[in-house]
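Q: Okay, next protein. This is Peptidase S9 from Manganibacter manganicus. I've checked the sequence twice, so it should be correct. Can you predict the 3D structure?
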Amino acid sequence: MTKNTSFAAATPPRAEKRPVQDTHHGVTRSDEFAWLRAGNWQEVFRDPSLLDPQIRLHLDAENAYQAELMAETKGLQKTLFAEMKGRIKEDDSSVPMKDGPYAYGSSFRLGGEQPRYFRTPRDGGEEVILLDGDAEAEGKAYFRLGGVDHSADHARLLWSFDDKGSEFFTLKVRDLAAGTDLADSVSDTGGGGVWNAANDGFYYTRLDPNHRPSKLFFHMLGDEPANDRLVYEETDPGFFMGVGGTRDNRWVLIGINDHETSEYRILDASRPDAEPKLVCARETGLQYDLEEGGDVFFILTNADGAKDFKIMTAPVADPSRANWRELVAHEPGRLILSVLGFKDHMVRLERKDGLPRIVVRDRTTDEEHTISFDEEAFSLGLAGAYEYDTEVIRFSYSSMTTPAQVYDYNMRTRERTLLKTQEVPSGHNPADYVTRRLMAPAEDGELVPISLLYRRDTPLDGTAPCLLYGYGSYGITIPAAFNTNCLSLVDRGFVYAIAHVRGGKDKGYGWYDDGKRAAKRNTFTDFIACAKHLVGQNYTAHDRIVAQGGSAGGMLMGAIANMAPQAFGGIIAEVPFVDVLTTMLDASLPLTPPEWPEWGNPIASEEDYRIIAAYSPYDNVAALAYPPILAVAGLTDPRVTYWEPAKWVARLRELKSGDNPVLFKINMDAGHAGASGRFSRLEEIAYTYAFALKVAGKA
């Protein structure tokens, strides 16, 4: 990589070295920047003003440095922001979804940052605002709404908010007739709750000091939260717990899981004093999900070797494992993603040959039909319905060239009704763009899908810049969906590409297995293979590729930076999980024990230690000619703590060769998701895109 001369000359901050050593399995490491982790990090998540002044001074210096290097892009950032904002219908509104006498939806006002929740009479009429996010956010540097759920009698709204970015949510109850909140207020929750059948109380999870949802409580309206009944406590720190309900309001479902094992307990929603009933005890590697079905539960599971999942049924009177009966058999290569149950139908979302599809099953005849589309690459979202006794479900469709479309679908008549097409106020002609699906040969011969978007007039002679996005962890699939923001790059001659690397479930569950733990290296080599294939097919050149990924995708960015810095012209790592080994060795951190099935447990296993140590980005920084790198983080992020990118950037500057800069931008008022408002979030995207354009010589 040659010296990059597009950035202004400025002196970067240099973090003081204070080496700390640790030894595991006979291996001793030295961490010279460990002091950047605040000893009181739990308190900082709740009150950022408690951050150690020396750490704050260093982070402020980082922000000043990146601002200086990006100063000449200020005008470009404003232009990009205006473009992206111009593609958003500012007063956009969802299509209300019917539930009993009402239909519920959300909307934005002109210039509004936060959503408003409203309802109308079932078949249309005057909108009544139930919750105004802008009003609730007033005066707060950060504000994010969590769960919003109306009671079955339509009298109250259970809603939550986080005003620090640390994802400690406060639950409140709104009286919809009065338009005011009741005295009931519960802090330190997971962000959602489930009403009981009588609509006079709700179930919720409370987070412990290490940010784990370990206790489920029942709150009766009017009681003091301190007196709430403890319904269930999960004592294993390796498992997360969540609570959900069914559309018929009969059951409360307590879901407990890590990344490879799950367990459910059920509660009769009409009995607040009931004790949870175990469905199937956790068994390492056994995954299952419950879905209502009247007198049965539908069970989506990988039991009995069903790697790509099958669907079982079990009677609600006794849904234990012995009573599971197969309904939809396992079919290798067809990954069943989710199931929705209704009175007369069952709906499943699945992926086959890399593309999603919706399958509807008549519960009386067992006849099935598929909702199909014809584009080469596209995205489907299954919204379902509020009601259990209905023939109509809702789904969304988009592709990289086609704006999102929302449909109602009658499961009996098979009639598809287009309710809404995403408006792009500044204009969008799909014919101006091309979307393609390529297959890149990986290091071991596997074929890695790449979704592409570019303007029809973009020269495909190797001169076009390219933004190559990747994730590749937790089985998460990045959809080939419509994205108005990336058009700001594509309209400037970029090829926008998504690398569907192993670690996701793009080609079935095996695609996930082949990108985790001992096979994690495949995620990184797949991404590099995608870059090489794009170059080999004349879409771009290596010094024109800007790689981008966030969170675990940010870890991917750190790994490919170490493994193939010459293959990229720039790297954007957002909230990057780059200090993998140190984090997985610290059982006190919020996500560590539940993450061991994904990455391995380096405390207990020397093999896991050595596997992680071999790719952990922070541990493998070397005297290499790295391309320009931008790291972005949030101070109160409980998922990827701020000190991971802070340490990584410090070590990169210490060891790298050449003059390419390493920038670190940290939002001192936000967490993992960045800025909370829809427009302030666009400002952050405009910043990262300005970096990409600058690196590509397009700024």
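A: Here is a summary of the prediction. The first strand starts at residue 20 and ends at 24. DSSP finds 13 helices and 37 strands in the chain.
Q: Noted. On to the next one.
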